[in-house]
Amino acid sequence: MTAVEQPETPLGHGNMRRKEDARFIRGRGTYVDDVTLPGMLHGAVLRSPYAHARIVSIDTSAAQAHPKVRAVITGETLAGLNLAWMPTLSHDVQAVLATDKVRFQGQEVAFVVAEDRYSARDALELIDVDYEALPPVIDARQALAEDAPVIRDDLEGRTDNHIFDWESGDAAATDDVFASAEVVAAQDMLYPRVHPAPLETCGAVADMDAVTGKLTVWTTTQAPHAHRTIYALVAGLPEHKIRIISPDIGGGFGNKVGIYPGYVCAVVGSIVTGKPVKWVEDRSENLMSTSFARDYHMHGEIAATKDGRILGLRVNVLADHGAFNGTAQPTKFPAGFFGVFTGSYDLEAAHCSVTGVYTNKAPGGVAYACSFRITEAVYLVERLVDVLAFDLGMDPAELRMKNLLRPEQFPYRSKTGWEYDSGDYPTALRAALDLADYPALRAEQALKRERGEQMGIGVAFFTEAVGAGPRKHMDILGLGMADGAELRVHPTGKAVLRLSCQTQGQGHETTFAQIVGEELGISPDDIDVVHGDTDQTPFGLGTYGSRSTPVSGAAAAVVARKVRERARIVASAMLEVSADDLEWEKGRWFVRGDVEAGRTIQEIALAAHSDLELPEGVEGHLDATCVYNPPNLTYPFGAYVCVVDVDADTGQVTVRRFVAVDDCGVRINPMIVEGQVHGGLADGVGMALMQVMAFDEDGNHLGGSFMDYLLPTSMECPSWELGETVTPSPHHPIGAKGIGESATVGSPAAVVNAVVDALRPFGVRHADMPLTPAAVWSAAQGTPLRTDLAIT
Amino acid sequence: MTAVEQPETPLGHGNMRRKEDARFIRGRGTYVDDVTLPGMLHGAVLRSPYAHARIVSIDTSAAQAHPKVRAVITGETLAGLNLAWMPTLSHDVQAVLATDKVRFQGQEVAFVVAEDRYSARDALELIDVDYEALPPVIDARQALAEDAPVIRDDLEGRTDNHIFDWESGDAAATDDVFASAEVVAAQDMLYPRVHPAPLETCGAVADMDAVTGKLTVWTTTQAPHAHRTIYALVAGLPEHKIRIISPDIGGGFGNKVGIYPGYVCAVVGSIVTGKPVKWVEDRSENLMSTSFARDYHMHGEIAATKDGRILGLRVNVLADHGAFNGTAQPTKFPAGFFGVFTGSYDLEAAHCSVTGVYTNKAPGGVAYACSFRITEAVYLVERLVDVLAFDLGMDPAELRMKNLLRPEQFPYRSKTGWEYDSGDYPTALRAALDLADYPALRAEQALKRERGEQMGIGVAFFTEAVGAGPRKHMDILGLGMADGAELRVHPTGKAVLRLSCQTQGQGHETTFAQIVGEELGISPDDIDVVHGDTDQTPFGLGTYGSRSTPVSGAAAAVVARKVRERARIVASAMLEVSADDLEWEKGRWFVRGDVEAGRTIQEIALAAHSDLELPEGVEGHLDATCVYNPPNLTYPFGAYVCVVDVDADTGQVTVRRFVAVDDCGVRINPMIVEGQVHGGLADGVGMALMQVMAFDEDGNHLGGSFMDYLLPTSMECPSWELGETVTPSPHHPIGAKGIGESATVGSPAAVVNAVVDALRPFGVRHADMPLTPAAVWSAAQGTPLRTDLAIT
Questions:
Q1: Which sequence ranges form a coiled-coil region, renumbered to this chain (chains A, B) (predicted)?
Q2: A313 three-state secondary structure
């Protein structure tokens, strides 16, 4: 369906308009920058102009003398509060404000609190920092060189820039498969450093009440409870005296999971001045210093038989994490999410090793949609399959169909130990090929090639692993991934659902109300969803990695079922029959065999709050809580077909068609699912064709505005053609799998495969993202561009 | 202990300073009038100058033309919104703004919304109401006269001013006892109309968000959830779109249970203008139009043997409820709380009948501390016992001791069907007499009488019935009296307790934290108590009738025990032993027989939120909820001795000493209990000596300021001498009974008994409250004053 239709509110699952849109469309959302408190002050961050330098001295006296400045905070101030260093979510530490050295361009050096934002900015220029420049490490491939400067000399005993090595799969078995394989195709490829670039930048309003000792922080976070606990553990603030409010959030995509120095500075600013302090970064700060993603230098090899049976994968990765090791990488589960690099195929063996290094760039390793490196892994394997098809002269769709996992193999344990829950991959691929009319496309391509026109058809298949937990396998700084939900049904049968997850625009207020509506027969319009406020919601680790529906969605269904069972007891007291004799139909318990004798959930709710006498030991009201610990991840998947036209003379790529068949299990609100897919596909087009955070040799960041770092618009996107298959997750209460990131994961390979396919007449077997006009033109010329470094 | 000592925070029960005082003492509380919202408008109420009049017309045009007026609301406006009439908590209805008639002086007639409070007040004078005066009914004893005007002709079929008759006890058995009794003493007495007069008047800030449809009301209420549900049921507003916030409240005493027209007007004002609207009444409005209490004309008879064995009680009451039948009277439980008029004595039979009538006064029947008419009942029986002692020439303390219920009679079922839970009355009376040194007082009195000085000694004993539910016996508009509690223990072991009750200064934030601290071994400093916000707390019917500790306190203990049991499962997983092998000591589960092998609640809390693997089916975290439905009321009791000096020439009474021995079961924070008793005793002194809401014959209210309606100050109060006995309630989880109102209930009789005792040389057997100098002087002259009516 298209968005212009106006569906009626269903009693549960189904298309309905987003409840939150009423305020968003009218400009009545409340973002962090909309929060204004009496007496509020404004903060601004002084950032390093150097990628690598020693700080000789910081003179703040002139800034402090500014008539509107209330405080100037440096690392020294913070050290006095024991807040100089903060943990990253990967067990690293990061200076809140640099003291000894700056380690990336844009690093935070000082924080000014003033009466208005303009004065705060003006005063930054009055701070005199004496830097002694140091040689920077910008190219990850130079990070482990003998003579490379040691970036993290703040860490005790650190003598190089090595962070970690990890591997996944059976190296010996993989080598054996490769040794005996008929065909081996290898390819180096880069997944460039990109940025989530949410519509809203990061910010915080911190308000420390000196009398009650309560700290309230309105902040752009996808994980309010994790922030609260981390503030408590790290800063020694009492956890019950911290309230994190994450109001309306203008996009996250992983950019708003971690804690940034600016947040801490706002808090310290409020402690120091006794007033609320607002800090909101500008676009250039967001692009320069908040978490990046990708930056993977990958070498992949694929082994196969001559007739195209894929046997094995062998991968080496050099991962550039910047100056501090950021969000959640690698995680415990089997050995980081890159471990799903075996993709959607039936392999004999696979092995992968990843080495992480520090460089003088902003902290990386962020979980930018998607899911902790799955995007890179899917891109790698889907490019490798196309490279193999190139080498074998096979059709890439046919090659995939031949090697996809078969339905009867599920639940499937991958060669790297992942338990895929359910899937019917060939059906999804066939659906995509049918929707695209693949044979007709190939025929059209053949005709065009005869005319010297470059048309490309890219196929990609992906499997995601989303919905982190389970708690025993995953954590953030030791906090387990189980999510809370609370459901209260008011006397009149209206309800409020409180969730630990936090929306950044995904439509949670609608989807989760529909989940509860489906279980209880209460209209989603009568159910409010509350999230994003630690004072109002149960504990949980937030929204990222498409985990809201797999985890919080499951919690919502489970807690609604608990309420339904409580309602059954109340109904049995109302009807004076045994609870065992009651049957449920949507919204109503009735006496088995006498459908007239029943009570609606609304009638039951009123009775549960009334003077009705309940059996001994049965509590009144209709409230319930649940903590959901997922038994496994969920595994959405999909098949994408992209059609491009390439102008080989200018390098211009036009994405003419994009067919996406997604399987995210049961769809609660198909309209919202499709919206999520639309966004992710656009994201993929952007990464494939236009985005890279490039640096010059001094570490100067070359993507500080949307003039340099490009976002796709409707002009660059086709009218998406969507299809679906539905393979419910067997372990999820309602069979849903999560859709938030699927399209971002699957689409870049489809676009790149299409462009490379278009360039086949030029003998192009691979070209690195982003496929800008210059890159495409150069590839066609046989002289591929280095896209990540602007080194002449 | 005295308040100047500074106790350390105990781990549970015990003396500690109130956590809330940090903000109260520094003027950092947030009362309704402190709430200021952007664009907020201000409302003012136009009130009737007549006690009874027909409204011929209302012309608002001049007011509407005022440049700063945004809206003028009349009953007509409300009728359009279906909000013209609102329910009272006694199943009556009250006009929000009068349309046909005004029925008491001060009744709400119109509401002006303006840009500031001053303009709103100014514009009131521009409203032209044409009244046609009607004869008012002011004296309840005239209300049922043939020719009395029918006040509530708005009620269909109403032809007189009769509201209800109810009775309690066995009339025939009582008549038999009286017929054969050796002695019968009878006395008419008045419990005058008084006003709770809280420090903060009533008010509301209403904010209807036109986009989200959410109505937020900051309001002075003791029962936020009841308000929310009533708004939902009556106004048809969706309950999940209503948020009632009751912030810091400056005293309630029953005055802030019901819904007042001003609240509804503020809501309508916000709906009509699209802006937040604040309405805060001034002192004179509060005294004139918000709920009164008492106004009972009582005739009591007591039957006894010559040697002072009390056999029976027979009582008739005429209850003046004003123009609308207000808060919760009579209630279902056995037949209204006046039913405890049998007091603390072992009777053979008792009977009481009460007739309620309408008069042209402000709505009465409020539950002003205490408990729905128990204050009147205790006053009546304790005066009757003294009258009997007078007639028999017996010492009133001895007469009481002879007739008090004995410990072995508990649990005791009274002749009117009340199940007293526990008590040791003689011990309490003896403790009070000992503390007062009663024989020495009587000796002193004898000496003084010889010198012609009037010294009086008053003794009173009381039994209260508090802690409403149980749900099957009690309700407010059909809502049952079960209270919710939610407890979350954060990862670091700090906790938040969410309660449905609402404090008005009783120290809930401290006491309830101590209850949880006692059960879990978490410091009360580490536990935040949240209440007074329907969005943040579970459902329950609020705080009144000393029910917070009996009901919500029980809920707090039960929910903490649930958490302790959850912690046991987690500890068993941590320690890898069976949960059955664990033992609890304060704050810690340890392995039986190996006290070293244990985990503190804080360690358990962190593990419960970590990646610890829990047994199948066990949910993580350490949260729990509870809905507590009390199996019975609790029955605090106490013995009071009051010593007064009376100047018979001027009528001046000086309360020289006041000894109060209270038994409220287990004391959670003795310092807070003593503070509650101090306040209640002062309250009793005020009612006994100085307070009455009087009216002239036209229904003009004569107590519109604190110049007319007097409150006792420290100048009128002695240094209270407190004692205690502790008889735990057997059915309450921690044995607590509630203390909020005890002293208000017990002290008026003690003071009046003392004054009458002082006047014994003048032959005075009874004198009605308030015992003002004029009343005392007149009584001594043998010409008792009528105190309730200023009718010449």
A1: none
A2: strand
Q: Which residues does chain A have within 8 Å of residue B240's beta carbon, measured at their own beta carbons?
A: 490, 494-496, 526-528
Tell me, which fold does domain A482-628 have in CATH?
Aldehyde Oxidoreductase; domain 4 (3.30.365)
Buried b or exposed e, range A317-342, using 16+ CB within 10 angstroms: bbbbbbbbbbbbbbbebbbbbbbbbb
Q: Tokens 């969803």 belong to which residue?
A: A529
Beta carbons of A492 and B233 less than 8 Å apart: yes
ipTM for the predicted complex: 0.93
Q: Peptide bond before A149: cis, by omega within 30 degrees of 0?
A: no
**HSE of B561, CA atoms in CB hemisphere, 13 A:** 10
- At B790 the pLDDT is 59
Domain boundaries, chain B: 32-134+201-249+256-289, 374-466+633-780, 482-628
Same fold, B32-134+201-249+256-289 and B482-628: no
Among B482, B492, B495, whose Cβ lies nearest the Cβ of A621?
Answer: B482
- Chain B residues whose CB is inside 8 A of the A527 CB are 240
What is the pLDDT averaged over residues B568-588? Answer: 96
CATH architecture, domain B374-466+633-780: 2-Layer Sandwich (3.30)
Residue owning tokens 């790290």: A234
- β-partners of residue B486 are B498, B625
Region of A296 on the Ramachandran plot (φ > 0 left; ψ -120 to 50 alpha; else beta): beta
**Closest CA–CA distance from residue B490 to any residue of chain A (Å):** 7
pLDDT of residue B291: 84
Q: In angstroms, rounded to a whole number, what is the distance separating the alpha carbons of residues A273 and A294? A: 39
Query: Hey, are the CB atoms on A538 and B494 less than 8 Å from each other?
Result: no
Provide the shortest C-alpha distance from residue A627 to chain B (in Å). 5
Q: How far is A227 from chain B (nearest CA, A)?
A: 12
* A375-404 pLDDT per residue, tens: 999 999 999 999 999 999 999 999 999 999
The CA distance from A678 to A255, in Å, is 20
Q: Taking the CB of residue B346, how many other CB atoms lie within 10 A of it?
A: 18
pLDDT score of A456 more than 90? yes
| Mean local confidence (pLDDT), B391-415 | 97
Facing residue for A212 by CB, picked from B23, B491, B535: B23
Residues in chain B: 792
**What pLDDT score does A48 carry?**
98
Of B23, B241, B536, the CB nearest to A535: B536
Could you say which of 3.30.365.10, 1.10.10.10, 3.30.1490.20, 3.40.50.300 is the CATH number of the domain covering A379-467+632-780? 3.30.365.10
For A534, name the nearest residue in chain B, comparing CA atoms only.
B490
Query: Looking at the domain that runs over A32-134+201-249+256-289, which CATH code has it been given?
Result: 3.90.1170.50
Q: Which chain A residues touch B623 with a CB distance below 8 Å?
A: 484, 538-539, 625, 627
Rounded Cα–Cα distance for residues B271 and B82 (Å): 13
pLDDT per residue as tens digits for the range B595-614? 999 999 999 999 999 989 89
Query: Containing H/E element for B652?
Result: strand B652-663
What average pLDDT does the segment A494-511 reach?
Answer: 95
β-partners of residue B642 are B458, B658
Residue of B nearest to A624 (CA): B625
Residues in chain B closer than 8 A to A539 (CB atoms): 488, 490-491, 609, 621, 623
Q: What is the pTM of this model?
A: 0.94
| Average of per-residue pLDDT values in chain B | 93
Q: Please, what sign has the CA dihedral across residues A511, A516, A520, A525?
A: negative
Cβ of A474 within 8 Å of Cβ of B526? The answer is no
Find the CB nearest A492 among B232, B527, B629: B232
From the list B211, B238, B473, which residue is nearest A494 (CB)? B238
CB contact under 8 A, B539 and A482: no
B585: number of Cβ within 10 Å: 10
